[in-house]
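User: Hello, can you help with two protein structures?

Assistant: Certainly.
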Amino acid sequence: MTPSAKLDAYLRQNGLKLTKQRQLILDKFVSFDRHVTPDEMLALLKGDMPNLGLATLYRTMKLFVKAGIAHERRFADGLMRYEYAVEGEHHDHIICTDCGLIIEFEDDTIEERQREVSRRHGILIQSHRLDIYGTCIDVKNCQRRRK
């Protein structure tokens, strides 16, 4: 199901309307290729929507999360970030605590091991997330150190 169809279905189910503003935010959001903060989104949307406020953006992003279009992510730096929730896709994160670089990765061995540990403890996994924190090994290319 496309993000627009998913949003439309969620809005109809909850008696809400698809506004031009929600559609513009959705279109821009799904085009991001990274985890994005509300402040970054606001800056990127201001050209198309000069009257957009941060409170409206937060409400819209919460709506996208409820509709299954976005994931909220808060890493060690405390900033809220959003990422597009691709249906059927799961990935984990490695985060540099110096520069904030976020690397998405998938590892079948880790996923199977998590299932084994959960089964051993009598738990059926509904969801999970793995965030690994460290620092860039290549200090010359660490984003913060280059600034």
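That covers the first. Now for the second protein you mentioned:
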Amino acid sequence: MDSATIKAKANALFAEAPFVSRIGNSNDHQQALSLMDELIKDYETNRLLIEVLAAFIERWEERAPGLADFNARVAILDGDEAVLRVLMDQYQLKPSDLEPELGARGSVSGLLAGRYKLTCAQIEALSDRFGFNPEVFFRKV
């Protein structure tokens, strides 16, 4: 494929979906997350685009004004329960508000007390609900 063809295809992609290469606001971020949800259904086929899009999503999430305070607070946490407490504080939630993602109130209480660790399904549900990268829960402490 010649460079003119590559440039034309790239320009067509960025004209149709500019958020693939530049996330400038929360609407672009939501569109990028939606596209990512679709792409990961066939990871191997879409791997290269996933890697490009993931880099721009990560850059936005690190610098977004609305996420700066959240990111700073999460950066100093150690453990699932601490991340859950920040989410609850940030969104003014009660333990019962997290039951759809975490299960019965006893499960939520156990997680907050540090008796249990989050499962992959719970992490995915929290990430979907709050629109953040699940890597928050996989930090080394």
